Queue: 2 jobs
Job 1
Amino acid sequence: MGGRQLPTLYGVSLGPGNPKLLTLRAVEVLREAPKVFVPSSKGISRAEAIVSYFTKKRRIIRLDFPMVKDEAIVAKALQRNASRVCSILQRYGSCAYAALGDLSLYSTFWRLYPYVKEKMHDLDIEVIPGVPSFCACAASAKIPLALGDDIITIIPLSASRERIENLARYADTSILLKIKPSIIRSLKLVGKEYQQAVLAMHCSTDNEQVRVANIKELEELSKYFALMIVKRRKFL
Ligand SMILES: C[S@@+](CC[C@H](N)C(=O)[O-])C[C@H]1O[C@@H](n2cnc3c(N)ncnc32)[C@H](O)[C@@H]1O
């Protein structure tokens, strides 16, 4: 008994942006981890800014994730990043990977993990949950996401127009992530069926902008915001 402890990778959910919105366990792991990896595409990311509240700069390692659709380029970057994580795990026995919101939602952590596991079969992980961006957005807008038997859909706007339209048709609340200008066409359908919209940017940070709008204002406003919650029935 009392066998050898496996190298451990901690997946830390950082919440939406405010360093006060991390769990106690997340803070504990960030303080104790010998190294903390953060995703970065250019310069200091919001994830890195949050992590630097809890650990020294020299313990933070940036991992580059190219924002491209070409899966071959992405796979190459994931291989490279997984090798860096494995070498830290071999050296220190543990390390953390930290990303925004909750890691179970569209996070680079779950893109990276299979590559790490392939290189290091004897590996343990602990995943620490966190506050997703849209929960922070609902809190700032002071509205519920769902009541009673309401159905919610979470839709990344990178999905096809057909799937977005089908899902949005049935949900009482649709949460739209990864907003981009081409969303506007898709919103024409949503606009027919929904009454209220909440648009949000930089939720929970000093630069937060949250606007509760009439659904008709969406087309214009959608250019400027990162996340939207559209509701079939108006709340208040
Ligand atoms: C790759 S997804 C990651 C979602 C994240 N794991 C979560 O739990 O919220 C990135 C999208 O989340 C939304 N997002 C993340 N943080 C946000 C914030 N603080 N304010 C508004 N939207 C945010 C935006 O729609 C962005 O395009």
Note: The first strand starts at residue 8 and ends at 13.
Job 2
Amino acid sequence: MQLYHHPFSLDSQKVRLALEEKGIDYTSYHVNPLTGKNMDAFFFRKNPSGKIPVLQNGSHIIYDTTEIIQYIERIAETVSSGGNSTTLSSDVIEWTHKLQECDSKHFTLFHIPAKYRLYVSKYLRHVIIARMAESPNLASDYHRKLKEAYETDDKMKNVEVLIQSKDHLVKLLDELEVKLGETSYLGGVEFTLANVMVIPVLARLELLKLEDEYINIRPNLADYWVVVKQRPSYKKVIGRYFDGWRKRKHY
Ligand SMILES: N[C@@H](CCC(=O)N[C@@H](CS)C(=O)NCC(=O)O)C(=O)O
């Protein structure tokens, strides 16, 4: 299996945590969206939305994070049950969808200095236009990407978008706080893949130095955060990059 991803990408982190937790081997390819690598024609042919992560197994390509996580879960279940596929826990599916709806993209962008954000967005628009000229057969996909880039810039001018993504996050964290009062992990007493959806969101909050405002005021969530950071998967996928991110001011 091949995974196209980047260490800074939230959705890539979710998928890599799942692969580590289930002990599944894969070949890793870095595609950095901050330098526009996701706009290269080879990648656009795999995923016309130009987004990471993308998981490829033979000719099978999956580019929806929730679907990738469910695919990983199915592979792991099939291996552990000796070939008989078992059903996925509905709790895992419910939380996976719920956490995927969380608008982390706009939330993160709002916490990045406007000067830096606008510089990167202008650079990426130039990359899209250059790639479109090189591969005219992919023009309609590149046009869609350009439109999306302008829409994101517009959304950043709208404070309502920030309020909405903040409200959504707060509601989600409140719900997590209640659930973590009932069981030690999300989805039960054992670590399930539902947890890999929430860990990168908490790491992002810590990276943005917002842990006091969002995590530490919720005691169950704060305890949970200390526990999950001890897991080898966290250290491998997120922890070891943390100092570098802070130093280079990469979000
Ligand atoms: N629908 C995709 C969204 C993935 C996504 O938004 N990926 C971000 C990184 S976390 C990305 O590739 N951003 C670069 C871009 O949109 O050009 C999924 O659910 O997997």
Note: The mean pLDDT is 90.
